[in-house]
Specification:
Elements lengths: L8 H6 L11 H65 L3 H4 L5 H14 L3 E8 L5 E4 L13 H8 L2 E7 L1 H6 L10 E10 L5 E10 L1 H18 L1 E6 L5 E3 L12 H4 L7 E4 L5 E8 L12 E7 H54 L2 H47 L3 E5 L5 E4 L14 H6 L3 H17 L3 E7 L8 E10 L8 E8 L1 H59 L4 H32 L7 E4 H11 L1 H7 L2 E6 L4 E4 L1 H17 L6 E9 L2 E8 L33 H11 L3 E5 L7 E8 L10 H8 L8 E5 L3 H13 L3 E5 L2 H8 L6 E4 L8 H10 L2 H4 L4 E5 L4 H10 L3 E4 L4 H17 L3
């Protein structure tokens, strides 16, 4: 019997499979595939890492160059600005400003300044009149002239910093540089002013250019020898003014390279044939330093920058090859180990096939079934364990999330019994489940029914719970408003379904909302009260205007009638003139109050048209000449012609009249008021200049405020309500213009200026005929006028005024009398008051235009009333009046209104 080991199935099963290079074997194929893949992946990884390292080194090198270049630009600009400020500060030294300072004292001060600021190679004080050097550091060039030097000429004008240049004479007196190059300097100068501000001397200086080299060495020195970093400073022509090394001397042309200013760092081939990383940045002006257009050019040898990268790349590839081979061997071994059970199954199948024994096959099948069942059980156990772990993890995550939330998070079963709460918000009751009934006890009595109804509906239907109520929380003394929300997770009615809900404390939000609601209600009430007060104010002004205008109408009317009749008695004429002037003044004050109220309320409507502001200004000045002569003040107008603006001619005249009238009021006899108008670009400007009292600095900011007077005492010399200038400002702003006041102080006169947007020259102006028609009136001779006014005095003065103008007047006291007369007599025009008892003017004209249309529906009608607000005018015109005249009565105004009303009816074909 042989002692050699037998090749049995058991021996083959116990012997590890040895990988053999047989491509038909699974382990060989897997080993080759995994090994090759590992090697390729290692090489690809090495390539990616090497390229990433190369890009990173490039970015770092570029960023380093750019950072150092930017630093040099900043420090260069800072240094140049500092030199300019130093020289400007030194020019203010008292020793240099004092005319009597001796050259020796100034030389000592200059030497002291140079000792503190060693960058200054030479500093001198120069006579401003002839350019002669009075004193200089170390006495250099004293007595010489620098009259033709830019440093002197520019220093007379102000602080100056000049570009780099050579100074041969100064360079000869100083030690030669080690590199043998000629010394170069920067100019700096500043004027020296005496006590009166006159330039008497100039402080001139030369700054050693070596300072820039020291700056460059400080910034780039540590990297020059180790990393090959060099920096150059070039001028606007691309010439090197600060060399970076022997290979590129001063004066070398770097124009092509310097054109890359503003571009990122790039790899360039220079004139020496070598590759460099190159970056160019321009200097910027800073403070007194103008910049000069210099550029800082920085370069680094590409070889020096990327030498470490190349070594690192080779190291990457070598390591990748080693790692790939090791990984391939490991993959070969792993594939053999992984395939070994398959080999065993294959051997078992081969043995069963070779043996063909039923017992062995059954044995194999029995083993296979047991193994399959055991594997399935293991798989199911693993799945169950995994699901349990996932569920526990989900529960922990939910608890952690709920604990981190500011809201109270709770979970309840399908019946509403709470099983989880993330915070202690209730007092536990031993032996009792926390259900809907228990939860309802936490709700205040006023909100409990609402909560129970909402919660019961959600439990019954599965609908989301969303209710706001006040809860008694565990850590709160008083009930707090909370939002309680919940959603059902799972199908309604299923035992596995759960309610997930939150309780969010919104107490502060509810309280603030209620406070805000109360605030809004208070604001609405305040607004209503304000509107009521505004309405009362308007009504008060309306009634005050009516009550003042009614008696004023009689005064003004009779004074004008007296003037019209030309009484022979001079005293009567004088009295009539004074009465009329004061009545007009009183009427102007009333109008200003009403206009100011209309402007403030935004109810003033402008009748805009293309007008010539020059004509308006001239006519306004002409209208005020008599007042100026009466006051003994010279009033003159000068200006351009054809100054077109888009505005209301009447309101523009009112603005100018207010300004001129104000100037006349505050200019004493013998003074002067000048009015000018001119075009200024896209503006038209009217200026009023007086030699009067002027305005104090304390009052100048209030001059355009309403009801403001600089002298409000009972002993003030000038009267008025202080609304004229406020009215002028409001009307100016309505026209889109601006107004300003300037005064040097009391008794220094004042200047008022208004500016309006100019209108294009192509805009047409109202014809002269139209202006004449609007400004003049035809004779009323022969006209039959029906006059109605309930006040006896007002009716009498209006009747006499119309009679004076030549009309035949029939005067009555009520609207009923008017209607009676219209049916019996013929009249050419109706002149009616508005405010009358029982039957006012508005009702009267409405009655005439409707019920009496057949006999007097087209009768021209003019409203003559003391209600003079714009709203009253609009109501009257809308009711049917053709024109509107506000009291006090004026013969010219009344006649003009009657003429316009008659022409309006004629133009309508009546």
């Amino acid at each position: 019997m042989s002692n050699a080991p037998q090749d049995t199935p058991a021996s083959r099963r116990d012997t590890p499979a040895r990988p053999r290079l047989n491509l038909a074997r699974l382990d060989v194929r897997i080993g080759l595939a995994l090994g090759s893949l590992m090697l390729v992946l290692a090489l690809v990884l090495a390539y990616v890492l090497s390229m990433a390292a190369e890009r990173q080194i490039l970015r770092l090198s570029a960023g380093n160059l750019e950072s150092l270049s930017d630093q040099m630009v900043r420090e260069l600009a800072d240094g140049m600005d500092r030199f300019a400020r130093d020289i400007q500060t030194e020019s203010a030294r008292e020793t240099f400003r004092t005319p009597g300072s001796s050259p020796s004292s100034m030389r000592a001060a200059l030497d002291q300044f140079k000792a503190i600021n060693p960058e200054f190679a030479w500093v001198a004080v120069v006579d401003a009149s002839n350019g002669r050097v009075i004193a200089a550091t170390q006495g250099l060039f004293e007595g010489g002239s620098i009259r033709d030097r830019p440093v002197f000429a520019q220093g007379l004008k102000g602080a100056f910093v000049g570009d780099v240049h050579e100074a041969v004479r100064l360079g000869e007196l100083m030690p030669k540089p080690e590199d043998g190059e000629p010394r170069r300097f920067l100019d700096a100068s500043a004027p020296i002013r005496d006590g009166s501000g006159k330039v008497t001397r100039v402080l001139a200086a030369h700054i050693a250019w070596q300072w820039t080299g020291d700056l460059r060495a400080r910034i780039f020195g540590p990297l020059r020898a180790r990393r090959g970093v060099e920096a150059f400073l070039v001028d606007t022509q691309g010439k090197v003014v600060l060399a970076g090394g022997p290979s590129t001397p001063t004066g070398a042309n770097l124009a092509t390279v310097s054109e890359r200013v503003g571009q990122p760092t790039a790899r360039l081939v220079w004139d020496d044939g070598r590759d460099y990383l190159t970056y160019v940045v321009a200097t910027n002006p800073q403070g007194q330093f103008p910049g000069f257009g210099w550029k800082v050019v920085t370069r680094q040898s590409f070889e020096a920058a990327f030498g470490p990268v190349r070594r690192l790349q080779w190291a990457f590839f070598a390591g990748a090859v080693v790692l790939g081979l090791l990984a391939a061997f490991l993959a070969w071994w792993i594939s053999a180990t992984l395939v070994r059970p398959v080999r065993k199954l294959a051997d078992l199948a081969l043995r069963a096939a070779d043996d063909a024994s039923l017992s062995s096959i059954m044995s194999d099948e029995s083993l296979e079934e047991v193994s399959a069942v055991r594997g399935l059980m293991q798989k199911l156990s693993h799945v169950a364990r995994t699901q349990t772990e996932e569920k526990e993890s989900s529960v922990r995550q939910f608890a952690a999330l709920a604990h981190s939330l500011p809201q109270i998070v709770w979970q309840a079963d399908i019946a509403g019994v709470v099983s989880y709460v993330n915070k202690d918000w209730i007092s536990p009751t031993p032996g009792h489940a926390f259900d809907a009934v228990t939860m309802a006890r936490l709700v205040v009595d006023e909100d409990r029914d609402t909560f129970i109804a909402a919660w019961s509906d959600s439990i019954g239907t599965g609908a989301d719970l969303d209710v706001r109520c006040r809860l008694k929380l565990l850590d709160a003394e008083d009930p707090r408003w909370c939002d309680m929300k919940a959603s059902l997770v799972g199908p309604p009615g299923a035992s596995t379904s759960r309610w997930i809900g939150t309780i969010f404390d919104v107490h502060e939000l509810v309280i603030r909302a209620k406070q805000m609601e109360r605030t809004l209600q208070d604001e609405r009430r305040a607004k209503e009260e304000l509107e009521r007060l505004i309405k009362q104010r308007d009504q008060f002004l309306r009634m005050v205007s009516h009550e003042l205008r009614s008696p004023l109408s009689a005064i003004s009317g009779w004074s004008e009638i007296l003037l019209k009749k030309s009484a022979a008695d001079p005293l009567v004429l004088q009295a009539a003139t004074v009465i009329r002037r004061n009545a007009q003044l009183q009427n102007g004050l009333i109008n200003d109050l009403l206009d100011m109220n209309a402007v403030a309320a935004g109810r003033l409507v402008l009748d805009r048209a293309a007008v010539d502001l020059a004509d308006i200004a001239r006519d306004t000045v002409d209208a005020l000449r008599a007042e100026a002569q009466r006051r003994g003040v010279a009033l003159e107008y000068t200006g351009q012609s054809n100054l077109r603006v888009n505005g209301d001619g009447k309101r523009l005249a009112q603005i100018i009249a207010n300004l001129v009238g104000n100037a006349l009021k505050f200019t004493e006899s013998g003074g002067r008021v000048d009015v000018t108008s001119r075009g200024l670009g896209d503006l038209v400007v009217v200026k009023v200049v007086d030699t009067g009292r002027g305005i104090s600095p304390q009052f100048i900011s209030k001059v355009f405020e309403g009801l403001q007077q600089e002298d409000a005492s009972t002993t003030r010399r000038k009267g008025g309500l202080g609304v004229g200038l406020a009215m002028a400002k409001g009307l100016t702003e309505l026209h889109g213009g601006s107004i300003s006041a300037i005064s040097a102080g009391v008794d220094q006169g004042s200047t008022f200026e208004v500016a309006f947007p100019a209108l294009a020259q192509g805009a047409s102006l109202p014809s002269a005929k139209k202006l004449q028609d609007e400004g003049s009136s035809d004779s009323l001779a022969g006209l039959r006028v029906l006059l109605v006014d309930d006040e006896d005095d007002a009716r009498e003065v209006a009747e006499v005024a119309l009679t004076t103008l030549g009309a035949h007047v029939r005067a009555v006291a009520s609207g009923a009398e008017v209607l009676a007369l219209l049916g019996a007599e013929h009249f050419d025009i109706l002149v009616s008051d508005i405010g009358m008892p029982e039957f006012d003017g508005i009702a009267l004209i409405s009655e005439i235009r409707t019920r009496f249309r057949s006999i007097a529906g087209d009768l021209p009608a003019v409203a003559l009333t003391a209600f003079a607000m714009e709203a009253d005018r609009q109501v009257a015109l809308a009711a049917g009046f053709d024109d509107y005249v506000a009291k006090p009565i004026s013969l010219t105004t009344l006649a003009g209104a009657i003429g316009r009303a008659l022409k309006k009816r004629v133009s309508q074909g009546v």
